[in-house]
Amino acid sequence: MIDKAFTINTLQKLVQINSVNPGLVEGAPGEGEIARFIHEQLIQMGVDSRITDAAPGRPNVTAIIKGNGGGKSLMINAHTDTVGVEGMDDPFSARIENEKLYGRGSYDMKSGIAAMLAVAKSFADSKPDISGDLVLTFVADEEHESVGAAAIADEIRTDSAIVTEPTDLRLCLAHRGFSIHKITVHGKTAHGGNHMLGVDANVKMGLLLNEIAEFAKHLPVQNRHPLCGEGSMHVPLIEGGRSLFIYSHKCTIHTERRTLPGETQKAVETDLRNLIANVKKKDPEFRADLEDVLWRSPYEISPDKDIVKAATSAAESVLGKVPETIGHTWWEDSAIFGEAGMETMILGAKGGGIHEDIEWVEIGSVIELAEILYRTTLDYCS
Ligand SMILES: [Zn+2]
Questions:
Q1: How far does the centroid of ligand 1 lie from the alpha carbon of residue 228, in Å?
Q2: Which CATH number fits domain 177-296: 3.30.2350.20, 3.30.70.100, 3.30.70.360, 3.40.50.300?
Q3: Is 90 exceeded by the pLDDT of residue 273?
């Protein structure tokens, strides 16, 4: 049984700790204090816990509840960092109103941390028999470079994993990935009055932007994924030229392509090379370089996997109905665990306002989440 008062109280304390990611907001405190708080809670329960640095000053907390041997092992995971608080009135108050708890990270995803600590407490209080190990990981830096999850994936190998990112108590079985590229279009610098000498890189980039716009328009009607919908592409950054009265020698863009499960880095790059080639066909003077900046894989898990079946029946027994399955259009740490060989799904609390000025979580859903995670563990690790 889940200790409701403990869960709510713990969630409040977690939200009251500022754990804004210093990679996103200069000078922000990061995960040190919240990691120590989680570690101390676990130690007080008598659960085996340790803190390790994923990078200098970026701690992960790992706790293990040992099984009797022979069963399948499960990792439950949450990230401890949050995005910034600019624009928020009372980001760390953790005030409760109408069964909702407000504040930065309440939903994304201290709700998951609180539920996981409640699961640890249930194991510590009633010591149920499990065969496989339950591993709880609380990682740094998901909102920026995911150094925390990467360090865990290097070190820990469980059969399955549940990431407790918000899903409104639905089972998230797939999410999109993303690919960032930098494209530089070259021009020729000249005095603004010397049109016979200059080649305008900014205007040339316009030709490529047109191709990108056409390509992006057709992505939604190409291959759709049943849970994630369509792929997409946009240009979040553009920079070109030196000053007024000078022909622009160089214009650069960053492209952001959101990919569907099954799409590869190579295919995304080929698409971009084709767009550049299309412009060249129309304008032989066009010159552009393409560079890889960042790739994050899309992810999907089959609904036939044991962990999904265990979570489905646990959710059904707690919620009184078969939970809906969904896909997320954004990327999550689950892809890192999945690529490392752990069968990973996502299941988290209900709320709203992710990365927005008003963020909240429905308290009842955090209790339900804890209960579902507890029952899933008993079933899966038995
Ligand atoms: Zn998150």
A1: 18
A2: 3.30.70.360
A3: yes
